[in-house]
Each structure stands twice: as C-alpha cells, then as structure tokens.
Amino acid sequence: MHPWLQTVIDMCRGKFKGDLKAFEEDPLGISINIERHCFGEFSMASVQANEFMEDRSQVEVASNNALFLGVYDGHGGYLASRFIAENLFKNLLRIAHENGNTITQDTLSSAVSDTEKQFINYVRTEYIAMPSLAKAGSCCLTAVIWKKTLYVANLGDSRAIIVSMVDGKPVVEQLTRDHNCNDIAIREELRAMHPNDPNIVFKRNGSYRVKGIIEVCRTIGDAYLKRPDFTFHDSFPKDTNGPPLPDKCVLSSEPEMRSRALRNNDKFLIFASDGLWDLMSNEQAALIVSKNPRNGIAKRLLSVALTESARRRGFSYQNVQAASPGRGNASRRSFHDDISVIVVFLEKPSILRKRVLNMSYSGLNPTPEKSDFEGSGLSSLILSPLSPRGLKASFRRRSKSVDSPLGGSSQGEDTDRLIDQSSRQTAQGRWASLRQKLFGRFRR
C-alpha cells in the first residue's frame, strides 16, 4: 500500500489524533501551545528520555523582520547543546550588526562556525579537570526567517521540513539532509574523504558509525574526534573494545546551508530532533499538523510519537509515562529519545495584525523572556517615505475600495491633483493639506 494512502487511513481511524491529556500529565513533557511571531504563529514542545535532558530548543521572536529557530540534540551530556543555546543566537546578532544589521546565508553560517570555535576553546580550557567534556557534542539545526527568505544551517540528523498547499493538498519538502551514517550516501562520502582509513565507518551495535563510535558525521563539539590533542591526552578514557582512535579529524563542523524564498502557498515548517523522525515520516507529521487545530499542535505531534513508541513494544502511553528517565530495559530511553519539536505557521502579512514583542522562548521553560532582538537593530520597523507617484497609486487603490458620494473616478482625479500640489509643499504642510482635503469631507 502506498505510504500516503496508509497515512490517510490511519488518520481516519484516529491513530494520529494523539492523546493531549496524557501528554499534559507526562512529568517529562513541556509545551507551549501557541504564540505569535511577526510572520504568523508557532507551537513548541519537548519530552525528556535521558537521565538529564540533552536536547535544547529555542525560538527568538523579533517584533519585525525576523524569526530565529534552533533545535540542538546533544550527546555525551547536555553541555554542548546548552552552550549552543546560550551562544549561537548572540553570535548571529553580533555578526549581523557588523554587516549593517542584515542577515544572509553567510551570516548564519559564520554564527555557527564561531559557536564551534568557542566551544572547542571552552573544552581546551576545562577538559583536563573534566576529561569527559571532550566527548560532549551536539547536532545543530538552526534557521532564520529574515524578511521573506528562510536560511537554514544543519549539522547532524535533526530535520526541517516545509509544507505547502498545492491544489488543496499538503506537499512536503525536506529542507535538510540527515548527516547519519545509516544513510548509504553519507557512508560513501566519508569513505571518499578518508580513502586510507578502512575503518572510517562500520556497523556496530546495529548501526553504522564513524569509527564505530558515533552515528552522525557533522556536529558541534566532539573534540576528541576532531583534535588529536584531545584524543590522545593521557587522562582521556580509551575504548579498549573499539578501533584505534583517529589521529586526525573525522567529524565535520561545517554546516550544510539552505536558502529558500518563502512563497504565498507555504503553510508551515516543522523543526525536530531525530527522535521524532524515528517514530513518524515527514508525510505523517505534515498531515497531523494539517488536519488538527493549531493550538497545542507541537505536543500533539509528540503525543502521537510517544504512543507509537509504546505500540512498537506492545505497551501503552501510560506505561511510557511510568518509566523512569535514563537507560535500561524499563527506562524511558528504551522507548524513545529526547525529542524537541517546533511548528511554525506562515501567514501573509497584514497591516491589521497587532505588533508582536521581542520575546525568547525555550523548550525547557514555558515562560518567555525578553529576547536579545530587543535593541539589536534587526527588529526595527523602517518605513520609507513614498514618492508622489507612490502616493498616487496608494490613494487610487484605497479610493476604489471605498464607497464615496463623489464616485471612484472623480475621487481618483482629485487625488492626483492634490498630490501634485502637495509635492511642492514642505513635508509638514503636505501631510496636513492631504489629510484635510481628502478626509475632511467625511468628518463633516
């Protein structure tokens, strides 16, 4: 059966409705039901599985022009993902300020690269006292909507999709590539990059891994697989059952970039760590969002995913909730990974929409704080003055949509004449004259 048809059948059976009440009662789940951003609305949710939550996620809302998204899936602890959440967005603002308060693909790429350099320097300073810090790393999926363009940077196997409506049906476009060794294309890339290392990637514990150690090939951190001085330090624990540790960098810290102009038929984005995509397909996630209310949609996605994780082991969601965080046969980690999800709805701009505030939202805390977008120069609203020709066109459009006792054509001619006269006046006198002559008749 075609996957799309099976998904539709499952939707009709209610399989993808989820159990929102169960998720709300889950002690390890956190959600933000719905909030506004300057291009529409968003919802976010996360659920813990490990002993300590290793995921971090954030949404930075600018009052105008911009929206920042981040999903950071940590491994070897939460230190790397937390570092990214605390520094990547700040780096982006700094670099944007240095480049005339604008954002480009290079701006975002540079912010990610600077964050990697800062974390490696942090490890270099601290890892002698804390050797395990050299094993801390994180996938990094981040994006900025700047005006009408989406910029995406990705390292690892978190995933972003965008869903558009074509002929009344949702069409899914995957914006990122999973940098995971279980993808044959990734394995071929690694072997081509390391032709003299037959053990650059091989299967271990049921999965293909770089040097038999890690599934993903691009990360922030993981200094012991990037810098020999960390790899061979005497205090660093060696894996006696694994292959020899590398004598050169085997993981990449270069983000894979994507730019895409947003279109009128683009409806929403889904950003999520790999824990979600392990439990549902792109099309299933898109259909859940398309067919359910916006309010609480991110936690609905997680509810469906957790229900599926229980079903695969022959249990119920309640059994998942009862499991303790951490690893082991009866633990949460035996059912699912840490998962973070952000759903971003995209809408056409409207002059009637209320202005949003510069706010920061975290996947670990449902209470927002003020965002560093405040005062950055990126969220300021700049209105360019219209030329006399632009004023004519604007007032003509308005006059056609307003019933006037003067009639549309005569009002348009009056408008042209008034604007021609006003263009020779001072700026203050021009607006005062226009307001009086155009709208004064309706006030009497």
How is this structure best described in words?
The chain has 444 residues and is an alpha+beta fold. It has 13 helices and 17 strands. It has helices at residues 3-12, 20-24, 79-98, 105-126, 184-193, 228-231, 274-277, 282-291, 297-311, 317-322, 388-400, 408-422, 427-443, and strands at residues 29-37, 40-47, 55-61, 66-75, 137-138, 140-146, 149-155, 159-166, 169-174, 201-204, 207-210, 220-221, 256-261, 266-272, 339-346, 359-362, 365-370. Strands 3, 4, 5, 6, 7, 12, 13, 16 and 17 form a 9-stranded antiparallel sheet that branches. A hairpin with a 2-residue loop joins strand 8 and strand 9. Helix 1 (3-12) runs parallel beside helix 8 (282-291) and helix 12 packs antiparallel against helix 13. The longest helix is centred in the first third of the chain and has 22 residues, at 105-126. The chain starts with a helix and ends with a helix.
Number of helices: 13
Which blocks of ≥5 consecutive residues have pLDDT under 50?
Answer: 1-9, 383-387, 400-412, 422-426
Sheet-strand content, in percent, reads 15-25%
Largest sheet entry: 9 strands, antiparallel
The average pLDDT value, as a whole number, equals 85
Distance between the termini: 70 Å
Secondary structural class: alpha+beta
| DSSP, total strands | 17
Helicity, as a percent range: 25-40%
User: Could you spell the SSE succession in H and E letters?
Assistant: HHEEEEHHEEEEEHEEEHEEHHHHEEEHHH
Which overall shape is indicated by the principal axes computed on the Cα atoms? globular
Over the alpha carbons, how many angstroms does the gyration radius reach?
26 Å
